Amino acid sequence: MSGSVWSFVPESGEHAGTSYSVVVPTVWENLPEFASYRGRGCFRRKFYGEGNVRLVCKGISHTAEIYLDGRLLGKHYNAYTPFSLLARQIPSGEHELKIIVDNRFSENSALHIPNDYMTYGGINRGIVLEHLKKAYIEYLHVEVGKAGKNGWKVLLTTKINGISDSSERYTLRLQADPLFTDEIAIDLETNESRIVQKEIYLENVSEWTPENPVLYKVRAILSDTEPMDDLIERFGFREIKVSGKYILLNGRPIRIKGFNRHEDHPMFGCAMPLQAIEQDIQIAMDLGANAIRTSHYPNDELFLDLCDEQGILVWEESHARGLKEYHMQNPYFQKQSEDCIREMVMNHKNHPCIFVWGILNECASETLYGRDCYTKQYRQLKELDRTRPRTSASNKHKKDICLDIPEIVSFNLYPEWYSDQNETAVDCIQDMMQWIRNNPVTRNKPFIVSEIGAGALYGYHTRTKDKWSEEYQCIALEHQLRAVLESAECCGVFIWQLTDIRISRERFENRPRTMNNKGIVDEYRRPKMSYEIVKDIFTSYDDYFETNL
Questions:
Q1: CA–CA gap between residue 48 and residue 205 (Å, rounded)
Q2: Is 0.85 topped by the overall pTM?
Q3: Ordered structural domains, the chain, with CATH
Q4: Digit-coded pLDDT (tens) for 204-238
Q5: Where would I find the beta strands (DSSP E) of 71-150?
């Protein structure tokens, strides 16, 4: 249903009740009359179908109510994670799908609050409508790990949902040509769900690396007397480990040179098409980056697919930014966070590009209540995926009481921008690294500078090199990046940020242009003077550390 025309009708404001034709995915801020609309809107589309129907929504911002032929099918909260709904035995003929979308901030929303990025309204990612038979495959997960010098252990986990009114016998065929083929007999009782696991040992496969991102396809086919459902997933043979102060990719200590990136574009909002996503990745690669952090929420699977194919490492992050303790005490916070983490990991864990899971950017990690929240979320991540390390981007630094929990320590540092102007980037970063290495909790953990940077208004130049000028951004970034990358105590850095982005005007009236202007390119992807500075620095450092491990 993506790429098709829907009707959109706002529920409030001067244009309430007026119908507009829009192509989904979209956000209503793309319409001239709704650039700043906060409220509810109704999206409608008709389709022909019958029997069992499954609706897969990749992202709706940020609260959704889904109706089929006027009957409530389900609800969902959070703009950035997929969800699915099942309608059983619908009659043959034309049906109407109605989705009520709400992007208002309220006490019922713990994660979507006025913030340093824009919360758009609309169906911001794709929608898929599936016609099902007696059973279907919900997911197929592939976990890989090294086994000996040349071998790999592969764990395949498939969830099958039966929707038949009687007991049935099925065959599940798993194949990844030319690696393996296997068949498993499955008996399902009425409406039963079953998780099937298969472990396989393989040799002589090609590893996934940034230099050579080899991908394999695995297909699950569910049949009775004939095929009734299939699911194809891609995966790569790569292993992420932590060893002392290093992050190891297939046994080699990787140096992270990355950017923070928001899903934001002046023409598309957060409903970015494939071509616009690819442009961002190409810009990052041209700048010499080998990694991107999905600040501050899970990204579109299209972005992850492209990073898989082009060898870009990804720090994927659950949804949360800048939450104070009172935000985290919201009665909806824990449930909404758990749902977001589960949907993020369960839908994205096959992507080899993801090398670390992140949670709770700049939240209350200096408080006891905050520590309890961090502990629960880190535990949930580990239960869902034991193959990747975990981290959080912290701005509490030496006051942070959660640094013992994750495998990687990450700090957001802005020397020569927010800090005392008498403190140089070298002094700030050396002091922080010395503290980390002298602290018994952090001394044997990898350290990442998860944010660093300075703002610049595109086209603003001054001979005095004042703040907000392109000249000052060049100076600050050069000091910051060289101080980080010249130290063997830090395994990487993510610049804040790749592009300028729109922000919530409800909170940040003092940001110039109501934008976060720290991009190396502006919102239209026009390079600032700092582009060549960053490119020169990033390309002058190897992607791996030279060390004997």
A1: 45
A2: yes
A3: 4-132 (2.60.120.260), 135-235 (2.60.40.10), 251-539 (3.20.20.80)
A4: 999 999 999 999 999 999 999 899 999 999 999 99
A5: 71-77, 83-102, 122-123, 127-132, 135-147
